[in-house]
Amino acid sequence: MGLARKDLLRMQDLTADEIRLILDTAESMKQVAGRDIKKVPALRGKTLINLFYEASTRTRTSFEIAGKWLSADVINVSTSSSSVAKGESLKDTGLTLQAMHPDIVVLRHPASGAAEFLAKQLAASVINAGDGAHEHPSQALLDLFTIREKKGRLEGLKAAIVGDIAHSRVARSSIHGMRKVGMEVRVAGPRTMLPCFIDRLGVEVFTDLERAIADVDIIMMLRLQLERQQAGLFPSLREYSRLFGLTLPRLKGAKSDVLIMHPGPINRGVEIAPEVADGPYSLILNQVENGVAVRMALLYLLAGAPQAG
Amino acid sequence: MARRIAQELKIINGADIPVGTLDVTLYRDDLGRVGLQPVVRKTDIPFPINERRVVLVDDVLYTGRTIRAALDSLIDLGRPRLIQLAVLVDRGHRELPIRADYVGKNVPTSRQEQVQVLLTEEDGVDGVLIVKG
User: Fold this and answer.
1) Separation CA A105–CA A47 (nearest Å)
2) What does pTM read for this prediction?
3) Quick check: ipTM above 0.90?
4) Would residue A136 show up in a list of annotated catalytic residues for this protein?
5) Contact (CB, 8 A) for A78 and A53
6) Which of A129, A191, A294, B88 could form a cystine bridge with A142, CB 3.0-4.6 A?
7) 3-class SS at A7?
8) What is the mean pLDDT of residues B18-26?
9) Judging by DSSP bridges, how do beta strands B53-61 and A125-131 pair with one another?
10) Looking at the complex, does the CB of residue A264 fall below 8 Å from at least one CB of chain B?
11) Cross-strand pairs, A128
12) How far apart are CA B92 and CA B117, in angstroms?
């Protein structure tokens, strides 16, 4: 069993069986992380390039650690210190990297569709680590892994995704992923942040946080992307926080065993109160921990596909 | 098979010998070469192996590549005093300088054949089948 694809670009492309294979493989990978010698030789001689056009701590570090624990050689290219700063296009950067024969390129880019564009140029496997407001599949997979680990199952669970749905690649990837494995999904946020026709993805739409979280198993808070908020989608941070911030009093209306997730980085006191983020139901750091195992599984499964390399 | 050997040893001399499972998938040398990628399963060795005598148990010894991977994998988990190998069937065709310390039966085979070991615990019946490929 392997992934019968060269690239991982969108959750939309994956089948439920492929998602299950990735999560099962990640469980085995998590074991490696618990050992004294956190390294296996599976990807010895393979080269992984992290190409990041946007800031990132957890995703880039997580792919880097995942590659290193599998014995791949990992190279990080950040745009501020590369030829991109001299105006090189994505295509040319991609072809330049290709000439160095990497096996896997992990791309984060502000433009939706950038990973798909690069995947067509390169013989290497391309993993989309976030393209604009489009998708961020490895994040959705690690969220599914974390939910399955805590709840023991995915099918039939109910999740609410709260915040700026329109600008969120995490939301889009999660909606596709959760729907494929049989979860019910709700989205909630101010109307200005809910895209038109979002219900066509098979989600219920709420504009009231309390009603949205009333009987769900998982609440996924999205980061308010302050760097993308010049459009006046809400009157003030304080008002957003008052209406859509997850606070302890508000959580009283939710299920007693509700799990709280956030893809990070969090804006403490804006979309999530510190006592909720640091509270017992918060899985925020579990998500980060599991991110490494899930990305190890992705690298292994993509590198091992017979046509790759 | 390892579990069964441990049970027999307990009957013979009353010794409780811990049994664990080693998954060597991540240590294989044929990633991307074989048509079907094997599923990565879990290694479960719930006891320290430092300074102990470890007997690797496998059903069929063939090319020796799995044992090579198992040795590397084991050494990443600790430093045993001694590692030995016990197999039920040695079918020949080694591709590496590896030999078993304990062999149930040497069975000359051709490379075109497959040797399958059936165990009551998993297959409902004990048996060794030589299947024409």
Assistant:
1) 9
2) 0.90
3) no
4) yes
5) no
6) A294
7) coil
8) 93
9) unpaired
10) no
11) A107
12) 16
